[in-house]
Amino acid sequence: MFRQLTDNLYVSPQIDLDQIGEAKALGVTMIVNNRPDDEEPGQTNGAEIEAAAKAAGLGYVAVPVSHGGFAPWQLDGMAAALEQAGAGKTLAYCRSGTRSTLLWALTRARAGDDADALGETASAAGYDLAPVRQIMDALKAG
Question: 117-130: per-residue pLDDT in tens?
């Protein structure tokens, strides 16, 4: 269920409370929720995930991304969460893992990472960065 993008980042579809322990066993120290609450019936809401993460000794940050696109504050939030995790691993989740992957890629492109290399990393995990490629190029250009 968890797909590894980098040595320190996993992405995933919506997680449930019982997957907090699985994440911790993989060395995850930070969970990033990229999914708005109540996006679909039956999803575990962020407050429940946050409480379970904190009870397990993990950090938790909510940086919700709707289907309307990405804003600078979301890139800032993702960058801060990844920085806060430090040497620990991060698990970012949304409905399918796609928005988490796209947000990661945008954040890294803004930091100056090569868009082609980011695309290869995402592709190896089963995700396509084509929807944000032009934005990535623009972010890198400044």
Answer: 999 999 999 999 99
CA angle 89, 90, 96 (to 5 degrees): 140
Q: What is the pLDDT of residues 77-101, one digit of tens each?
A: 999 999 999 889 999 999 999 999 9
The rounded radius of gyration (Å) of the Cα atoms in the chain is 14
pTM (2 d.p.): 0.95
> Each residue of 34-43: pLDDT tens digit?
999 999 999 9
Q: What is the 3-state secondary structure (H, E, C) of the chain?
A: CCEEEECCEEEECCCCCCHHHHHHHCCEEEEEECCCCCCCCCCCCHHHHHHHHHHCCCEEEECCCCCCCCCHHHHHHHHHHHHHHCCCEEEEECCCCHHHHHHHHHHHHHCCCCHHHHHHHHHHCCCCCHHHHHHHHHHHHC
d(CA 35, CA 103): 12
